[in-house]
Amino acid sequence: MTAEQRTAQTYRYEKWRALSSGVLETASSTFLMLIAVRWFQAGAMSKAMVAGGSSVGLLLAPVLVARVEMLGLPTARAAARLAVLGAATFVVMALLPSLWVFVAGSILALACSSSMVPLLTQVYQENYPEQRRGWLFSRTFMVRIAMAAVFAQAGGWLLSSNTSANFPGWAFTGGIEHFRWLLAGFAAAFVLAAFCLSQVPSRALVAAGASRHPFRALRFARDDRVFRTTLVAWMFLGLGNLMMVPLRVEYLANPHYGVTLHGAAMTAGAIALLTSVLPNLARLVLNPLWGWLFDRMNFFLLRITLNFGFMLGILSFFTSGSLTGMVVGALLYGMSIAGGDVAWSLWVTKFAPPERVADYMSVHTFFTGLRGVVAPVLAFQLAGVLSLATIGWLSAGLILAGSLVLLPEVRLGRTARPGTAMVEEVSD
Sign (positive/negative) of CA torsion 125, 128, 129, 134? Predict the structure, then answer.
């Protein structure tokens, strides 16, 4: 198969897989937390565990990459196996609706989705040409974003008790008790993802050396200064951002905070609108622009620009005290996450040797998972003693600190592959 054929086949099946990714994104961003709060009335620790499910998968990514390398599995085929496991997990959750099954299943299912990220990044490195990688990735991500917006709206209607009022004549009456249908939908999305991944051309990973240590890839953070500096900056900004993601649903769904719409408690549909639909509409519009900029712009300047968007979005959502402020915050978050999607998923391709992209990405996802596990626990514990507005300001401060760490690197732009001389490059 020629390089052009690999690119075309990968792009074709990635567009189909993006449909399933959009559905599964609503699970992690909105619906699993909403079900935990509204149906199971979960405590702070259970909610933090549900919110941290994706981060567990990211934390274990170096172990997964090492295992796939040892077994000699093609990367896309290994990712397909994880998708099958995720589908089975959601089926069990739908059949056995108890709190402990829901929490454990949420962690496992979301971990299956997130842990495959380094494997997929290696696929993009191999099958997408460097000069078009950001653009191709962003085009498939547009499908994901659109599907996430549509499914979030549909899921919100399904779980809203006023569904029949919105659609007179319908025999069906929505309500949170229908959450098992959503879990079945998430299982079906994983099945589609497994099929698409099985059709994507990929190769086995190149052995990283004689060491069998499952976390051996972490040495790249020690040996590569620019990589290490970027990881430190990302730890600050990622911790600040991830603290606020689960608190968005908590803020709108928990009666303790008194957030209302026209004097009544927020419906599931309204919560989905503010936490998923509006951000995804903003992402859909701007994602191609950020993909184009990723291929051309100074990476560090791009990252700092996105950071300021996250800061403003958090402050608007949590400190305005108005519906208008929450809408503006949701849109700013969506605009920023549109660029974050591309930057987070592909940035290591600018720094890592081609054969080591999965290893570099596994280190990046490991630290993302570390802060992702800590952030929800810290957020919900802080919410017990501080106002969410105060936590929002703390989060903004962390993101600002991460931006300051990156400022000295702006002049470097993109760097040469490790092992070669540094190349100073001006942003275009």
Answer: negative
pLDDT of 171 over the 60 cut: no
Please state which of the four CATH numbers 1.20.1580.10, 2.60.40.10, 3.10.450.50, 1.20.1250.20 is assigned to the domain occupying 3-204+219-412.
1.20.1250.20
> What is the token pair recorded at 159?
């779980």
Q: Which residues, at least 6 apart from 55, have a Cβ–Cβ distance to it below 8 Å?
A: 114, 242, 368, 369, 370, 371, 372, 373, 375, 376
Go through the chain and tell me how many residues it has.
428
* Beta-bridge mates of residue 265: 260
pLDDT in tens, 335-386: 998 888 888 888 888 878 887 888 888 888 888 888 888 888 888 889 888 9
Q: H/E element holding 97?
A: none
Q: Contact 277/30 with Cβ under 8 angstroms?
A: no
The string of pLDDT tens digits covering residues 39-72 is 888 888 898 889 888 888 988 888 888 889 888 9
Give percent helix, percent strand, percent coil of the chain, each to the nearest 5: 80, 0, 20
Assess contact for 114 and 58: CB atoms under 8 A: yes
pTM: 0.76
Which contiguous run of DSSP H or E holds residue 251? Answer: helix 225-253
Contact 214, 363 (CB under 8 A): no
* CB-based burial label for 412 (10 Å; 0-12, 13-18, 19+): middle
Q: For the chain, what are the domain ranges? A: 3-204+219-412
Nearest to 241 by CA among 115, 374, 45, 58: 374
pLDDT digits (tens, 9 = 90+) for 258-294: 777 767 778 877 888 888 888 888 888 888 888 888 8
